[in-house]
Each structure stands twice: as C-alpha cells, then as structure tokens.
Design brief:
Elements: H1 2-23, H2 30-53, H3 63-66, H4 76-99, H5 105-136, H6 144-172, H7 186-207, H8 210-229, H9 236-258, H10 261-284, H11 289-293, H12 317-326, E1 329-334, H13 336-341, H14 344-356, E2 360-365, H15 375-382, E3 390-392, H16 393-396, E4 405-409, E5 439-444, E6 464-468, H17 471-481
Parallel strand pairs: 1-2, 1-4, 2-3, 4-5, 5-6
Helix pairs in contact: 1-2, 1-10, 5-6, 5-9, 6-7, 6-8, 6-9, 7-8, 9-10, 12-17, 14-17
C-alpha cells in the first residue's frame, strides 16, 4: 500500500513538472509555472523521505520490487544522512540564490549544471558499488548488461556536464579567457576521446570491473573540458543551454540507474527542452547546432582586429539630452553592460520622461542581449519598463532607418556590423542594424572590444557618438539635463 502511495506521488510530481515547463513557456504564466515546479519538487522529496523513513511494519510484500534500491533498507541512519544532505544543499542553494545579481544568473546556471553533472557521476559510481557487491555475492541481477549501460552512460554525460559547466562558468565570469582553445588536431582529439569512451563503456559492461569505468570517467571529464574550451565566448549562451540539456539527460540516466520514475521524467523534460532551446538559439544566431555540440567542429580561430579603425566622436550628457528632447523617435538597445551597471532603473525613468514629452521610445532586444534568452526582458520588467514597448530584434531591425536617435547602452557584439563579414568569431550572427539610424550614441566605459574580442567599426562611423563613463551615472546625468519639454503630438497624429 505504501509503495503504491510513493509511486503515485512520484507520478503526480512528474505531471506537475510538465505543467511547470508549460507555464515557463510564456512570460505571463511564468510565476504559475514556477509554483507548479516547486510543488512537484516538494511532493517528490516528501515521498522519498516517507519511503526511507517507513518502518518495516508499513511495508508490503511488493516493497522491494517497487521501491528504488536506495530506500530498500530504510532505517534511522539513511534518513539522517538524507536530511543532512538536503540541509547542506538547501543552505548552498539559498546562499547562492540570495546573493546572486540578475547579471550573474548565467554564471549561476552554469554552476548549478556542474552540480547536477557531478551528482550523476557520484550516483553512477555508488550504484555500481552496490551492483558489484551483488554480483560478487553470486546474486542474479535481471538485465545486468542493460543496468550497467545505464550506469556508464549516466557517468559519461554527467562528467561531460561537470567539467563543461565549470569551463562555461569560468568564461562567463571572466575567470578564464573567452577565446576558443584551439589545440592542434583538436577535432581528432575529440574523436579519439569519444571512441575511447565508447570502448571503455563496452569493456565495463562486459567485465564488470572498476578500471574501465575509471578510464571512462577521466576521458569524459577531459572531453567536457575540451568541448567547451574550444567554443568562443560569443557562443556561451548556446553552450549554457546545451549544458542544461546535458544535465537533464544525466539526471534521467541517474533515474534509470536508481529506478526512480520521477527523476527519469524530470531529466527527460529538462534534456528535451534544453536541446530544443539550444537548436532555436543556434538558428537565431546562425550557428550550426552540430558544430556547437561538437565543440565548434570544423571552425578555425579567426583573427580579431588589432586596434582602432579611425577617429571617434564624443558627446556629453547635456548635449545628448537636447538631442533626445528634439527627437521624434528613440530606440534603446541595451546589453550586458547596462545590466552590470544597474542602469535599467534610470533608463526606465528616461523612457518615462521622453514618452511624456511625446517622444516615441522603443527597446530593441537582441536574443542574447543579457547572455541568455529573456534575461534582458526580465531586467527591464524589474525596472517597470512597459512591456508593450519592448521588441525583439526581428520586429524592429528594419525600422532603424526611421529612428532619430539610437542609444546603445552596454552592448557591443550585438550591434557589431563585422558580424555581416566573413572571417571573425561573430560572422553570421544576426545583429541589430543600429548604424542605419540618423544618430547612434554608444555608452561605454572604454574602447575595449566586446566579449567576443572583435573590434567594432560602428564606433568610428560618421553618425556614431561615444559617451564614456558608467552607464548608470551617464543616464542619471541625461535625466538631470533633460529639459522639461511640453508634450508634443504623438507620431502619426
């Protein structure tokens, strides 16, 4: 009876996870989606604690057949260990979640992916310990070959996710260089490593020994490192999504190894949705999905520009304020630099004041403006920017030629016309055509190239002006200098 209750709770939790994913598909239903996910996890954890804590008298004859192996023994010690592990995880999670800023969310996601990958590796090794003990004791295990395959595939995906996520975190946090690591013969290295992993897996499946599993683990750890290290910083948003998919599949195989339906369902949902998102992002950025998966397979290191390509024009905040007051239409293209400077709040104030003065203000959002899809939209929503004036790149990219002033705040690679030329790390990536407007004002701290390390010729165009300094302070200065203009008739009136 109790076994049926636990399994039914797992199924309900899995259904709630499906509802959560559906809710997260839209901005309007995202809170509800999160609520479903939280409830599903509470039920799954509660069912697991119940299964571990349940005394022998509560267990039926079918207990051993229906429950995962780790809850079969039960007792006080397993329960205490489970609760201690949960408390440690909860403390770490709360510490990271309460301290992280919105700008640090991509890095945090990469860190969490590494935890999932490491957990999958440890689960696989632990399950093999129990399996090997059963085999050495002479016990017959049904479908032992398939069971061992579940173990080594889970370890393989988990190890790749672990080291790959650490490298992604390092690149996003600027702890390591964002430039791709291009070892001589790197594609052959990946191929040989992949063959070695498969061979070790088959060897492990037939020998039931530790040595091939250890070799497989080490090779997988190296492969995860090398695959992500070979991808440039400009493609890290896609990599994060890809690693999200990997972590899901690692969790799914861990579920197979443990016999936990809820973990299989959750992992499959995360893995499939992450793969779909990665494909969509690759298509939006004109990247090959297969190339990204294989660590930039077939690409070569492109040389970046060696320095400035001309003279720049500077503008001061008070002069820019007069331009904005006289403009009929203004387009704001925010980037990661705006988020770092926490400039979204004075930008929202600027938007409000210009709108009240009759200026048409719109936001043009590149898919990876905040490093992850939807990230910039969340930042603007936090600052109370009206959602109906925030547009995706494809919606407004043809309207820059009708715009009086474009404010590029903390963006670089996403407005770089070099992307339309061959031979650079961002070649082929769709960008915002801000240079087609009458005037472009770029907010930057310095002339340092963007995250991809590519010089931006936009800065040297005749219609481009540079406003150097902290983005938040610069926008505050503009707000202070903005004249209290009377409202003008709306465009088209």
């Amino acid at each position: 009876m109790l076994a049926n209750f636990v399994q039914a709770t797992y199924i309900v939790a899995g259904v709630l996870f499906i509802f959560a994913l559906a809710g997260l598909a839209k901005f309007e239903t995202s809170k509800r989606g999160n609520a479903f996910g939280i409830l599903g996890m509470v039920l799954a954890v509660g069912a697991t604690i119940t299964a571990v804590w349940a005394p022998e008298s509560w267990r039926g004859a079918d207990w051993a057949d229906q429950m995962p192996s780790f809850v079969g023994k039960g007792g006080v010690v397993p329960l205490v260990l489970l609760i201690v592990a949960m408390l440690i995880g909860a403390v770490i999670g709360l510490f990271k979640a309460t301290r992280v800023e919105m700008t640090g969310m991509p890095q945090l996601i990469a860190q969490l992916h590494s935890f999932v990958g490491l957990a999958a590796v440890l689960i696989g090794l632990n399950v093999f310990i129990e399996t090997r003990q059963e085999l050495l004791a002479g016990h017959q295990i049904e479908s032992v070959g398939f069971h061992l395959a579940e173990i080594w595939i889970g370890v393989f995906i988990g190890a790749v996710t672990f080291t790959g996520s650490i490298v992604a975190w390092g690149k996003l946090a600027e702890k390591i260089s964002s430039k791709p690591l291009t070892l001589p013969g790197r594609n052959w290295i990946n191929l040989i490593t992949g063959v070695g992993i498969i061979a070790s897996g088959v060897w492990f499946q037939n020998s039931h020994s530790w040595f091939p599993l250890i070799v497989l683990t080490l090779l997988s750890l190296f492969l995860g490192f090398h695959l992500v290290a070979a991808i440039g910083g400009a493609d890290m948003p896609v990599v994060i999504s890809m690693l999200n998919s990997y972590s899901g599949f690692a969790a799914a195989f861990s579920g197979f190894a443990l016999g936990m339906n809820v973990l299989i369902i959750t992992g499959a949902l995360v893995g499939a949705s992450g793969a779909i998102l990665s494909y969509i992002m690759c298509k939006a950025m004109n990247r090959s999905f297969i190339s990204v998966i294989l660590g930039g397979f077939g690409t070569t290191a492109a040389a970046t520009s060696e320095g400035p390509a001309g003279e720049i024009q500077e503008v001061k905040a008070d002069e820019l304020a007069s331009w904005l007051a006289d403009a009929r239409s203004v387009m704001i293209t925010p980037g990661y630099g705006m988020a770092v400077a926490q400039a979204q709040y004075p930008v929202a104030e600027l938007t409000k004041r210009l709108t009240e003065a009759g200026v048409q203000v719109r936001f043009a959002i590149h898919p990876v403006a905040g490093r992850l899809p939807g990230h910039m939209n969340v930042l603007l929503a936090e600052a109370r920017v009206p959602y109906d004036i925030v547009y995706e790149m494809d919606e407004v990219n043809d309207e820059f030629d009708e715009t009086d002033v474009v404010l590029v705040i903390g963006a670089n690679d996403t407005v770089n016309p070099t992307a339309m030329e061959p031979g650079t790390p961002i070649s082929g990536m769709p960008v915002l055509h801000v240079w087609e407007s009458k005037k472009v004002v770029v907010f930057k701290r310095s002339m340092k190239p963007g995250y991809a390390g590519v010089e931006n010729p936009l800065f040297f165009l005749d219609n481009t002006y540079m406003l150097f300094g902290d983005a938040k302070a610069s926008v505050d200065s503009i707000n202070s200098a903005l004249p209290a203009a009377e409202a003008r008739p709306a465009i088209g009136a």
